[in-house]
Each structure stands twice: as C-alpha cells, then as structure tokens.
Amino acid sequence: MAVDHAAAEVDHLAAERAAARFDVEAMKIAWAGSRHAVDVADRMARLVASDPVFRKDNRTMLSRKDLFKDTLRKAAHAWKRIVELRLTEEEASLLRQYVDQPGYVDLHWGMFVPAIKGQGTEEQQKKWLPLAYKFQIIGCYAQTELGHGSNVQGLETTATFDPMTDEFVIHSPTLTSSKWWPGGLGKASTHAVVYARLITEGKDYGIHGFIVQLRSLEDHSPLPGVTLGDIGGKFGSGAYNSMDNGVLRFDHVRIPRDQMLMRLSQVTREGKYVQSDVPKQLLYGTMVYVRQSIVADASKALSRAVCIAVRYSAIRKQFGSQDGGPETQVLNYRTQQSRLFPLLASAYAFRFVGDWLNWLYTDVTQKLEVKDYSTLQEAHACTAGLKAVTTSATADAIEECRKLCGGHGYLNSSGLPELFAVYVPACTYEGDNVVLLLQVARILMKTVSQLTSGKQPVGTMAYMGKVQHLMQSKCAVKTEAFEARALRMAVNCAQNIGQASNQEEGFYERSPDLLEAAVAHIQLIIVTKFIEKVHQDIPGHGVKEQLQNLCNVYALYTLHKHLGDFLATGSLTPKQGALANEQLGKLYAQVRPNAVALVDAFNYTDHYLGSVLGRYDGNVYPALYEEAWKDPLNETVVPEGYHEYLRPLLKQQLKLSRL
Ligand SMILES: CCCCC/C=C\C/C=C\C/C=C\C=C\C(=O)SCCNC(=O)CCNC(=O)[C@H](O)C(C)(C)COP(=O)(O)OP(=O)(O)OC[C@H]1O[C@@H](n2cnc3c(N)ncnc32)[C@H](O)[C@@H]1OP(=O)(O)O
Ligand SMILES: Cc1cc2nc3c(=O)[nH]c(=O)nc-3n(C[C@H](O)[C@H](O)[C@H](O)COP(=O)(O)OP(=O)(O)OC[C@H]3O[C@@H](n4cnc5c(N)ncnc54)[C@H](O)[C@@H]3O)c2cc1C
C-alpha cells in the first residue's frame, strides 16, 4: 500500500510539539522580553504577511533593476501603512523588520537620523529631524571611501571653511577619496551625513560630520558638483542587492557653515575652531549605536536559520530501517544534535546578551547627557567586541544550518542561501570584525597594565581585579574557568608585548594572540549574561529549566570548542575538559524532545521565515515540489535556446552515430 509520506511528515511536527516539556507561550515571552513585546511583534508580523505587496517568495528571481524597484515600492507601501494606521515608533520599526528587505529606509532611520541626533546641536536637530521624520528628505551615512574604511582618521574628503562666504567647500581631492559603500546613497538619498577633514585657517582638524544635500528635491537629479551612482551587484541572488550602496564624488560643493554637525565642536563665523568639552570619540557615537543593534539582529538571523534547520531535521528521515519500516528523523542523529543544538543555544545566548547590551547603551547615553563620560570605554569595548563575536558566529551558523539541511538547504526556496548572503557582510560593515576585536584587545592591555597601579577595573572587566586568585586557582567548570582563561590569555599577551622593543611593535607582533584574548573576554561576557538571565525569576512551566539547559549547552560547547585555550592557560585540567564534553552529550539528549518547541518560541510567521523547509506545518515535500514549478525555467517545457544550441548538437550527434 502506498504511504502518504507528506501527511506523515505533518504529523511529525504535531508529535514533536506534543512532546515538549515546557510552556511554549511562556517561552515566547521570555524570548521577546514581555507579553506586550510578543503581542506587538505578532500583530506586525501578521500585518506584513497578509499584505500581497510584501510578497518576497519571488525575490531571488528578479533582475537587479526589478528588485530595486520592488524595494522602493515596499518602502513606500510600508510608510503608507505606518501613516494610515498611526503606528507607534515601536510598531513601525517592527513592521520594517518583518518586510525583511534591505533598503534605503534602514540607513535613513538607522544611521542618518541617529547621526543628527547624536552630533547635531539642538537647533540643527530642530531644523533637520522633522524633515527626516516626514520623509521630506531621505538621508544616508557617507563615511567610508574607496581607499579607506576601517581607518576613519585616514579619510581624505575635505571640508574647507571659506570665511568670505561663510560656507564649507566639500571636495574629493583623489579617486580614493570617493565615498564608496554608503547604503541608500546610490539611487535614493537626497541628503547625506558626510564625514570629511575639517580645514579652517589653513589647519586640518581631522574628521567631522556635515549634512550635505546631494539631489534636487524637485526632480531627484544630482546637484551641481555632485557625481553619484550605485557601486554594482553584490554577493548572492536577491539578498543585499535590494540596497543601492553608492559612490559619491564632490567637486568643490558649497554648503552653509551651519550644516557642520556642531555638537562636539564648532567653527565660528570668523573661522575659529572651538572644541567642546566632550570627548572627541563621540564622533563615533552613531557606529556604537548601530553596533549594539547589530548584536540584537544577530540573534534574529541566527534564530531564523536554526528554526528552519530544526523543523526540517524533525521532518527529514534517513536510514535506520532495513525492512521497509520508518526511517530515522535526522534530528535523532547525535552528530546532527551536536552541530545544531549549540546553534540553538547561541541564538538564545545572543538574544539575552543583546538585551543587556541595549540596557548598557541606554545607560551610557543617559550618563552622557549629564556629562558623565566614565562608561564610554566600556560601551565601546562591549559593542565592538559583541558585534564582532556574534556576527562571525551567526554567519558561520547560517552556513552550518544550510549543510544541516542537506541538498535541499542549497535551494533558494530553503531561504538559507539568501539569509546567508544578506547576513555575511555584517562581519564587515560597522567595523571589520578583526579591527573591532583589536580595539577590545587594546582596552584589555590597558586594563592589565593598570592592575599593578592598584586601579580597580570596572564593569565587564571587573573580574580582572581578581588577578591574584584567578592566576593561581584551579577552576571548577563554571564562570570562573572562563574568567581565568580570559585573564590569563590577556596577561600572557601583555607579558609578551612587554618584552618587545616598544609597545606598538609588540602589539603588532602579538595581534593574532590578542584577537583570541579578545574573543575569550567577549565569550565570558556572553556566558555571564546568560547565567544572570537564568538566575532571574522566569515564569511558565519548565521555561527556566529549558533556559538553564541551553545556557549550559552554550557554556560547555564554547569550552569544548576552545579547549586548547583552557588547557594551555591551565584554567582546566584535561580531565575536566573530558567531563565537560561528557556532560554536553547528556544535555543534547535533554534538548532533543524540546527542540521544535524551542524554535516555535521565536514566533516567526512563514512569511518572515521565507523557507519551504522551515514551514510551521512541516508540509515540506509538497511545498518543495510546488515551488520548483514556479521557476522561470519551467515556464516552457522546451527551453529557450533549444533550437539554437541543443537541437543542432543533438542532430549532429545523430549524424555522427549513423556514420
Ligand atoms: C536600529 C536600526 C539599525 C539599522 C542598521 C542595522 C543594521 C545594519 C545594516 C546594514 C549595514 C548598514 C550600514 C553600514 C554602515 C557602515 O558600515 S558605516 C561605516 C562603519 N565604519 C567603521 O565601523 C569604521 C571602523 N573604524 C573605527 O571605528 C575607527 O577607525 C577605529 C576605532 C578602528 C580606530 O579609531 P582611531 O580614532 O583611529 O584610533 P584609536 O584606535 O587610537 O582610538 C582612539 C581612542 O578612541 C577610542 N575609541 C575608538 N572608537 C570608539 C568608539 N566608537 N567609542 C568610544 N571610544 C572609541 C579608543 O578606545 C581609543 O581610546 P584611548 O585613547 O585608548 O583611551
Ligand atoms: C554591505 C555593506 C554596507 C555598508 N554600508 C556602509 C554605509 O552605509 N556607510 C558607510 O560609510 N560605509 C558602509 N560600508 C563600509 C564598511 O563600513 C567598511 O567596508 C568596513 O568598515 C570595513 O572597512 P574596509 O572595507 O576598509 O576594509 P579593510 O579595512 O580594507 O579590510 C581589509 C582587510 O584588512 C584587515 N585589516 C584592516 N585594518 C587592519 C588592522 N589595523 N589590523 C589588522 N587587520 C586589518 C581586515 O581585517 C580585512 O581582513 C558598508 C559595507 C558593506 C559591505
């Protein structure tokens, strides 16, 4: 008798859900942060999913031009719905998230507006923000140049003050000074915050921000002296190609003096440069803001990939029966679990550390308002380091999820290739991950050097104050082992640098080790924040226990993966390392019955997930089959090109065979 495999697969997810040992609705709240957050997200996700304009299943088949136009259409429609429904800021931002198509709007709200808020005076904010809020202007963030991205102080664009006319002259003196990469610049933006070297009274005062109009508000044509366009196609089909990353050159473009963002420093009518009493690093404030939001985004991208891979692994069966009986769900293979469950745990870990980072950022911002700059370094180290570690781990994890889905993971309809292509530049934008980790390492070295002077480290570096204890102790397998590993790696680096002829040379020589020390420090933060989370009062049947398991999985997996560090620094013994690995295997067995419910708790609609493999109903095979027929190649039975290229070839073979 023919078995209806498709019906059996659907049953499988129902059975998986029934087997879960915790309250999924309560876990949704733990994941989202509150009942309110679940409800708003749910409403916005459904609003987007039910609107045909927001359709995205055909995205990978569109040409670049059509994809860009589709992005403009979606952005305009989203704005229309936001205005019509009078959505709050929270709702509007969630709606944009669920539209799930990178576009100029991200940079307008994500960087242009924050740059003006952070670096503009009150007067400048009053003038520019209402225009931006109503989309009467569209803005982007033009910092990176063709020749310089990571090295912000090396930017070449100039803004020279002309006291005769009370204007700045913005100029691109070389090809390498062309602005290159800014999202939204290529085709959509009318304005940009441009970073340029301020020159007044013949002196170069370094990099400052300026608001520059680029295109006419009448017909969108570039203003005189402005050359701009798109920089070209990017990695993957669909994916980040919806974004118009742009190139921009200035030929002596004049802007009024009051378009220099003057909160941090000013140029007077006479051309005098006046430095405010705020640290100059606040110029980098927009990047700090975006880096913290990128950490929150990491958990979103990772949880999407993991949701697809877990559901599909519960559906997919291979081997296990020699006599025609049911095969084994691939989720039951120990190897599948040991590859997949640490990623599931990481999604939760990044979510909670992202929430904490958001709290830290808000706290630092409030302190800055009352001129307390004491936590600026902590904010920089945590945002830079967490951005680097979470984005690298997430990019690797999405690719691992693709492999976990076997051949079907390679199909666009699995959603994983596009997710990877959209996500992977996160390792580069807002600061190349290596460059950011070296920033963390510099701060670690500074902290170690201050230990002898008796200065007590604070915040996430406070553990370094326990130097006497941590350098000597034999650690149990818990936070202390992570603290000892991070501290000992940092101290080793500091000692080695100390032996070099000078500090800079030593830092340069030891930079590969410094990277690893920075990663160890950041992983300690992630583990600590996860532990703090599970120590909170978490309502709901079994929810706390599940989070405790995932926290242990994250910590023990990290330990297992970096066992070399723990052993080399003597933070653990080989026996402890082996025991930790044993324990990890046992934890996977506890996660297994809850895996599907743990990804259900992310509460993603099928629209947002965009994957036939990750469908909520588990009806994978009919969906895959149906999806294939939608490909443009299947519009005709006989392919275009048959008459030109296939038929002559086949006929020729026929003639040859008759010879
Ligand atoms: C909510 C919506 C969000 C929307 C967006 C969401 C997702 C993103 C989506 C898509 C991407 C879209 C856009 C992408 C945009 C971009 O990529 S914008 C360009 C980003 N560019 C970079 O990140 C450049 C990286 N480089 C730098 O940040 C600096 O050049 C670097 C820090 C590497 C070096 O700085 P520099 O001044 O040359 O020298 P030092 O290393 O000596 O530092 C001097 C001191 O300043 C401290 N410091 C450095 N940075 C900061 C900071 N950000 N905050 C506070 N302090 C900082 C540093 O520790 C030194 O301190 P000491 O003097 O030692 O005490
Ligand atoms: C999709 C995307 C969107 C972007 N959007 C914007 C935007 O809206 N606005 C904007 O201004 N910019 C934007 N950027 C630019 C982005 O911020 C830069 O690409 C990024 O900061 C990295 O700089 P870079 O390209 O100069 O890399 P490079 O610094 O040239 O990196 C090349 C290699 O050199 C290494 N390296 C560099 N410096 C060091 C060092 N000191 N020590 C050791 N190794 C080093 C790096 O690790 C890397 O391996 C975007 C980029 C991308 C990919």
UniProtKB/TrEMBL annotation:
An example GO BP is: lipid homeostasis
Show where the Acyl-CoA oxidase C-alpha1 domain sits: 284-445
GO MF annotation: an example: fatty acid binding
Checking InterPro entries in the record gives: ACOX_C_alpha1, Acyl-CoA_ox_N, Acyl-CoA_Oxase/DH_mid-dom_sf, Acyl-CoA_oxidase, Acyl-CoA_oxidase_C, AcylCo_DH-like_C, AcylCoA_DH/ox_N_sf, AcylCoA_DH/oxidase_NM_dom_sf
Q: What's the protein called, per UniProt?
A: Acyl-coenzyme A oxidase
| Protein species of origin | Panicum virgatum
Acyl-CoA oxidase C-terminal domain boundaries = 479-651
In which compartments does the protein localize?
Answer: Peroxisome
Tell me which family the UniProt entry assigns to this protein.
Answer: Belongs to the acyl-CoA oxidase family.
Q: Which cofactor does it need?
A: FAD
Q: One matching Pfam family, short form?
A: Acyl-CoA_ox_N
Q: Which residues form the active site?
A: 430
Any idea which positions bind FAD?
144, 183
Gene Ontology CC terms:
peroxisome
